Amino acid sequence: MTTATAPAGGQQQANVDAFRRLVAEGFSGGDLSVVDEVMAEDHVEHQEGFEPPTREGVKHGIAFLHRLSPDIEVTIEDIAAAGGDQVWARLRARGTHGGEALGGPSGRAFDITVMDVCRFQNGRIVEHWGVPDRLAQMQQLGIIPGAPAPASRVA
Asked: CA quadruple 3, 11, 22, 36: dihedral positive or negative?
């Protein structure tokens, strides 16, 4: 995707489109190759738990999510471009603890909110900050005491 010469509004839309691809193809679909396509080689990952804090760490994180929940679905509920080089989004991650990760499979459902901020340069994500509601997820999966898991997965 060549977007470096697009006008500001066009570049913002290209950034939003790249983020949408990462969510749909990567986080929901499990396609790790999209990470290399939308993230810069020198990407810096600020989300806790993505190790190493690079695009390789993002690939590891996506693979882990699919081991935890093979049916994971991540959807964008709100998204905005800001300042010409940033994309802010509120996402919803839903799935069933069906994999071996985290002591599973328990068969319990989870439904959490994730907040994301990405900074773009030359049409690629160079920095990402993510805040998933891991407390709610661990409570819903029964890993720690708290709120019960959602009754069912509603699309």
From this structure: positive
Number of H helices, E strands in the chain: 4, 5
0.90 exceeded by pTM? no
Distance of CA 1 to the CA centre of its chain: 21
- Report which DSSP code applies to 23: I
Please tell me whether residue 112 adopts helix, strand or coil conformation: strand
Output the six-digit token pair for 27: 């986080």
The token duo for 20 is 């949408």
Extended strands (E) in the chain:
39-45, 73-82, 86-96, 109-121, 124-132
Sequence spans of domains, the chain: 8-140
**CATH no., domain 8-140:** 3.10.450.50
Structure tokens at 88: 């802010």
Residue by residue, pLDDT tens for the chain (155 residues) are: 333 334 467 999 999 999 999 999 999 999 999 999 999 999 999 999 999 999 999 999 999 999 999 999 999 999 999 998 999 999 999 999 998 778 778 899 999 999 999 999 999 999 999 999 999 999 999 888 886 666 655 44
Any idea what the Cα angle at residue 133 is, between residues 114 and 111, rounded to 5°? Answer: 80
